[in-house]
Structures are given as C-alpha cells and as structure tokens.
Amino acid sequence: MENQFFKNIEKKSGVNMNEIFELANSLQNANFKDEKTVRMIIKRVSKIANKPVSKEIEDKMVESITKDGNKLDMGQISKMMNKK
C-alpha cells in the first residue's frame, strides 16, 4: 500500500522518492550556517525538482539560509525559487 502511494507520487511528479528520502536524511545533520553545505543542498534540490536556480537566486537563498542557520524558512525559499 505505502509503496504504491510513493509510486503514484513519482509518476505524477517525475521525482524519484528515493532521492527525496536521501535528501531528507542528509538534511537532518546539515550545518545550515555553512555556505558550502547550503549551496550543495540548493543544487541538489534544484536537480531533483528539475528546476534550475540562477546564480543570483542561489546567492540570495544562501544568504537567507546562512543568516539564521537554525531556522530554515521553506516558504521563503519556495518564493525565491519561483522567481525567475
């Protein structure tokens, strides 16, 4: 049942659920105050979502995330990614 649920999500979104789970696991202990780590995460999410992020948007996201590494505002990040 659970497996079919994830297969349906993969089919509709085109996103591999294994990649999502691997990303989620890597985020658990990530240092969001480290610029290099944050850039890697942004690039990985961009690749998984098949949504390119310009250098300008990446820089803004990195600045926003590293400024307060204890709090990751996914809503703000989503807004930044949707701007082109």
UniProtKB/TrEMBL annotation:
It holds the Pfam family SpoVIF. It comes from Lederbergia graminis. This is Stage VI sporulation protein F.
